[in-house]
Design brief:
The complex is a heterotrimer. Chain A is mostly helical. Chain A has helices spanning about 5-20, 25-60, 80-90, 100-115, 135-140, 145-155, 160-190, 195-200, 205-210, 210-225, 250-275, 285-305, 315-340, 350-365. In chain A, helix 2 crosses helix 11 and helix 4 runs antiparallel to helix 6. Chain A is globular. Classes of the chains: A mainly alpha, B alpha+beta, C alpha+beta.
């Protein structure tokens, strides 16, 4: 009877044992790869469908209402209904669209979004490919989706979509840099680019405690990377420019939607692995801990969406280049210094240093706020003393 | 500290979420009721939506639902005297009344109503007709589920109005 | 030098954020607005002309539908105009108190909608809207209790009010009013200090007080430019001189100041309501002898501090039961004139925010 902790390891051994009964070794490897891919894709698709359901429920509860509760008991069949609707919807191709680019954009959006799952560790033996440069691989591959945004904007043949696509690209590129710098801080401390080694290095305490500033920067950048509110300019309907995916309906739109939620899961997973300790945790099986942490970050993203208004485009760029990038660079320097000092006090030196930097940054930002105009003089004829 | 405003806002929404779950826990398992719900309790948090059609809100007595014609409870005769006060009061000409003298000279009812139509589709539900009626005949009913599939069905005639009045009074 | 061209963009009648059917033709230079032309009239229903064919009493339902969010205030302005024209008076005390209560409740309703939908335009995913609409529901329930209809009550009539409120109204109203300060505090906590909101609203849509007065802008927009002009103080109507309240003014001149003015006015309305509900006497609710209104020939103009600004009715009578001229001073239309001034020089994304901060209702702009 396998322990729950080792469930997937046990399953892997059992299946490969059965297969090697009638397949040569290279056949077993191929079959295992195929099974892993199928299982991962199924898991992702089902997770993403139910992420939309979870989001709608959480946003509804924030607004004192119930969310979907009619399609099936407690609304569980709602994502199924949504998917069916999107599939049978008519695909309207605009007349001035660049057809090849228009049809390729959703593909270029979804396929690279699925690639990072080859290297994300769900548990100690649960990573399809434990490559030693995973931290480099994941952002590199998810950046290919930036091209898809541009393709969608151009291929729609609509000048507003083009503007929206350009804005989306600018946003993604701007927020990638502080994100990578905050990942760099973690890599500095661990000395390895491999995600499995990074998780193993957090056995005593998660890096969140040692580098809270890095975590906050990474969280803001992750939210901006996946075009989530409050940074969802590219998809906003109440903005003037329509957004890069306006001209898509039916399956094309479903692909963009799917890619966005897969991206959300990916960045939450990266945050969980790099800062929250991945699959480390007492009592429960490791993959359960991993999923708990990822869903925690996803709920934080939903919470942010439900509470905050949207940031304007120029303020978005200001935030990234003038605030987050310097902070991220300072963070790297501070982490390196603290690491060099070599004090064996666990996470305390890092925590203290981060808090000092955050306080200093807060003071600088507050002193640079524009002044409010003074009260103009009151004129007598407007107020009759009661 | 920069960012306290954001954190305060997050705290407010978190309170709302927690409160809805606490309410759910208190009312478990009876999530939907069948009887009409009265005026909602004043509070800042907690679930606010009404799950129609399982739960319905009870309307106030003065609610402008639809028109009804009332009868005298003892004699069973309708109260309307075909005086056309409602037709004159209406800003849009939505009510149309025709009456004739009662051939039965002994009866209390001097005028009989030959035709009384109310176009529910054109009415603005202002209530000037109900206020104008001198004989306690035209009143407001409380129903609001008046949707029909055919626009002609929106023109209520006298029998229909009397029927709705009987339903309202019989309850 | 590079030769650049300006771009004309149509923020069309169908748009999620134009608060009704409203069209703006923007001329952009890059991302900055160079010119703005508003096109309205999509909701024109010919109320002023139709009202000439109806009696003064039959026009009361029309006034509900001008600024459809604040039905009671429109009724009050019309009632004051007819009373001035026909010399109806004095209005019984209970009716006056009921009028003030209804008018201030309407002010809270309107500001709830204004603040909620301003935040919707800013992109907060419907949450502040639903909090504000939730509070509004309690007040609309009160309106339904009193008049039978939530948004088009036709309750305040020339001479008083249509009928007395049921006995459960005053205790219910006291409960609602008791909950109002906590609601405004919650909105404050959620929104006022929010850095993103401040960054979006501050220094956006600046309207200096001289320009505001020159355009004839009134209401919260004027008071947010620092001009402390409130008709309830400048030319008190009904019994407003008996109540103790402040005129909320902000020096900021921008959209953030308008937002703060609206929140502050909700608090002041709660103050007035507390006092009115405590002092309301018993008595009749309609003046004596108000039957078929047939004013002598003449003209009258009456104005009130409606939630959006100065709402006035100018009535000319020629001695017949129908008005000869029924003219509405449309608050939203006159406030709309300042839109171009406020938007020029800002980014495209700010135009929607400025439109939301002026708080228009197309029913009043187009009539």
């Amino acid at each position: 009877m396998p322990s729950l902790n080792n469930l997937f390891g046990f399953l892997q051994d059992w299946i490969s044992g059965k297969l090697s009964g009638f397949l040569p070794p290279w056949g077993v490897t191929l079959a295992m790869m195929a099974i892993t891919i199928v299982v991962l894709l199924l898991f992702l698709v089902v997770t993403v469908m139910y992420l939309t359901y979870l989001e709608r429920k959480v946003l509804a509860r924030i607004a004192d209402r119930l969310g979907p509760n009619r399609a099936g008991p407690l609304g569980i069949a709602q994502p199924v209904a949504d998917v069916l609707k999107l599939i049978v919807k008519e695909v309207i191709v605009p007349a001035r669209a660049d057809v090849a680019v228009y049809f390729l954009a959703p593909v270029v959006m979804v396929a690279p979004a699925l690639l990072p799952y080859a290297v994300l560790p769900f548990g100690p033996r649960m990573v399809p490919a434990d490559i030693s440069v995973a931290v480099l691989f994941v952002p590199a591959v998810t950046s290919i989706t930036t091209l898809a945004l541009l393709m969608a904007g151009w291929g729609s043949g609509n000048k507003y979509s083009l503007l929206g696509g350009l804005r989306a690209v600018a946003q993604k590129v701007s927020y990638s840099i502080p994100l990578l710098l905050s990942f760099l801080a973690v890599v500095l401390v661990t000395g390895s680019l491999s995600l499995v080694r990074i998780v193993e290095a957090q056995a005593s305490y998660p890096f969140l405690l040692a580098q809270p500033l890095g975590f906050i920067i990474a969280l803001i950048c992750c939210v901006a990377e996946v075009n989530r509110s409050p940074f969802d300019i590219p998809e906003a309907e109440s903005e003037l420019v329509a957004g890069y995916h306006t001209e898509y309906s039916g399956v094309g739109f479903a692909m963009f939607f799917l890619a966005e939620y897969i991206g959300m899961f990916t960045v939450s997973a990266m945050l969980a692995i790099l800062y929250l300790g991945g699959w480390q945790g007492p009592l429960l099986p490791p993959y359960i801990w991993f999923l708990i942490k990822v869903y925690l970050i996803l709920c934080v993203m939903f919470w942010l969406r439900g509470t905050f208004p949207r940031v304007r485009v120029d303020q978005l760029m200001n935030l990234s280049w003038k605030v987050l990038l310097p902070l991220a660079m300072v963070n790297v320097v501070v982490v390196a210094l603290v690491d060099k000092l070599g004090l064996r006090l666990g996470f305390l030196p890092g925590l203290v240093a981060s808090l000092v930097v955050m306080a200093a940054a807060g003071a600088i930002l507050r002193s640079r706020r524009p002044a409010r105009p003074a009260a103009p003089p009151r004129r007598g004829w407007q107020v009759r003393e009661a | 500290m920069v960012g306290t405003g954001l954190l305060k806002g997050l705290w407010v929404t978190l309170r709302h979420v927690v409160e809805t779950y606490r309410q759910d826990w208190q009312k478990f398992p009876r999530r939907y009721r069948r009887e009409p719900v009265a005026l909602q309790e004043q509070s800042l948090t907690g679930l606010f939506t009404v799950q129609y059609p399982e739960e319905r809100l009870r309307m106030f007595p003065r609610f402008h639902g639809h028109l009804i014609q009332k009868r005298d409870p003892e004699t069973g005769l309708y109260n309307c005297t075909a005086c056309k006060a409602c037709e004159r009061a209406c800003p849009h000409g939505v009510i149309s009344v025709e009456g004739e003298r009662n051939p039965d000279r002994e009866s209390k009812k001097k005028m009989l109503v030959t035709r009384f139509t109310w176009n529910a589709g054109r009415c603005v539900y202002c209530g000037l007709c109900v206020e104008a009626c001198p004989s306690d005949a035209l009143h407001w009913g409380q129903g609001y589920e008046l949707a029909v599939r055919n626009r002609d069905e929106l023109i209520f005639d006298f029998e229909r109005l009397l029927e709705l009045g009987d339903q309202a009074q019989g309850r | 030098m590079l030769r650049t061209e300006t771009l004309s963009i149509n923020v069309g009648p169908q748009h999620p954020s134009t608060h009704g059917v409203f069209r703006m033709l923007l001329t952009l230079d890059g991302e900055r607005v160079v010119d703005l032309k508003p096109y309205f009239g999509y909701l024109h229903r010919g109320i002023e002309k139709t009202a000439e064919q109806r009696t003064y009493l039959q026009n009361v339902p029309f006034t509900d539908r001008l600024d459809y969010i604040c039905g009671m205030s429109n009724n009050l302005a019309y009632a004051l105009a007819v009373e001035k024209l026909a010399g109806i008076g004095p209005i019984p005390e209970r009716a006056e108190y009921l009028r003030v209560i209804m008018a201030e409740l309407t002010r809270v309703v309107n500001h709830c909608v204004a603040v909620g939908f301003l935040l919707n335009d800013l992109g907060a995913f419907f949450t502040p809207v639903l909090y504000c609409l939730r509070q509004r529901e309690y007040i609309l329930d009160l309106f339904e209790m009193a008049s039978g209809s939530r948004m088009t009550p036709s309750y305040i009539r020339p001479g008083g009010v249509a009928e007395d409120v049921p006995p459960e109204f005053i205790p219910a109203a006291k409960k609602v009013v008791a909950g109002l300060p906590a609601f405004v505090d919650e909105l404050d906590q959620l929104l006022t200090g929010n850095e993103i909101l401040m960054a979006r609203l501050q220094n956006v849509g600046v309207l200096p007080p001289e320009r505001a007065i020159a355009y004839g802008v009134t209401g919260p927009v004027l008071r947010a430019s620092g001009v402390a002009y409130d008709i309830r103080r400048a030319e008190p109507y009904s019994i407003y001189d008996r109540f103790d309240f402040d005129v909320v003014t902000e020096p900021g001149q921008d959209a953030y100041a308008r937002f703060l003015v609206r929140l502050g006015e909700m608090r002041q309305s709660a103050r007035i309501l507390e006092q009115a509900l405590a002092q309301i006497p018993e008595g009749p609710v309609m003046a004596e002898g108000v039957r078929r209104i047939r004013p002598p020939a003449g003209e009258a103009y009456a104005r009130i501090e409606a939630p959006k600004g100065e709402l006035g009715f100018y009535l000319i009578s020629d001695g017949s039961p129908n008005p000869y001229r029924f003219r509405v001073r449309p608050t939203s239309l006159i406030n709309l004139q300042a839109l171009r001034d406020m938007c020029v020089g800002h980014l495209v994304a700010d135009v929607v925010v400025i439109l939301g901060s002026i708080d228009l209702t197309m029913g009043e702009v187009d009539r």
